Amino acid sequence: KLFGKLIVIYSAGILSPVARRWKGQFNENSKAWAFYESFSELNHNAVVGYEFPKEMKNKIYIVMLRCPSLHPRILTRYQITSEILEKAGVEHDIIDSQGKNDLTRIMSLVFLGDWVSYYLAMLNQTDPTPVKMIDYLKQRLNSY
Q1: Is 28 a catalytic residue?
Q2: Distance separating alpha carbons of residues 39 and 42, to the nearest angstrom
Q3: pLDDT in tens, 29-74
Q4: Cβ-based neighbours of 118, under 8 Å, separated by 6 or more
Q5: What is the distance between the alpha carbons of residues 124 and 119, in angstroms, rounded to a whole number?
Q6: Which end of the chain, N or C, is more open, meaning fewer C-beta atoms within 10 Å of its C-beta?
Q7: Which residues form a coiled coil (predicted)?
Q8: Given 5, 23, 28, 87, which residue is catalytic?
Q9: Are strands 92-96 and 60-66 parallel, antiparallel or unpaired?
């Protein structure tokens, strides 16, 4: 589902750092465009941007990371945002954490994101280990 797509990760609360990690792992391992947004802020602006450019609907995939310990009002936002995405024709999934406490829930999503970024690198036919652009940036910065 993520192959060939611009990936946007939505999250909230304790999962915001996890979404940031997913973004970084997709960027570095998969060499893919990825961004992240946080509830409830994304409901004040990002949802309005689903209209244009129209051709982006086919080029974007939204992953919503969720866990049961989030505030009930935030969990409601996940459901309503999913409905809005459905109406807008934007592909998306809600990924629920696994575990009995917040730490295990966080780690379940960290591990999942790491593996998904690895497999996406394989689909992209790229080695996930070198970060040539970062190496280039560091080299250039060292020359100043």
Answers
A1: yes
A2: 5
A3: 999 999 999 998 988 888 888 888 988 899 999 999 999 999 999 9
A4: 29, 30, 128
A5: 9
A6: C
A7: none
A8: 28
A9: parallel
Marked catalytic residue, from 44, 54, 87, 132? 44
* Cβ pair 5, 94 in contact under 8 A: no
Catalytic residue among 1, 59, 71, 138: 138
N residues, the chain: 144
Structural domain count, the chain: 1
Please indicate whether residue 92 is annotated as part of the active site.
no
Residue 36 inside a domain? The answer is: yes
Within-domain flag for 1: no
User: Which tokens go with 46?
Assistant: 């990002």
Is residue 16 in a domain? yes
- 6 within 8 A of 59, measured Cβ to Cβ: yes
User: Any idea what the CATH number is for the domain that residue 135 is in?
Assistant: 3.40.50.10490
pLDDT for the residue 64:
98
Report the predicted TM-score, pTM, of the whole model to 2 decimal places. Answer: 0.92
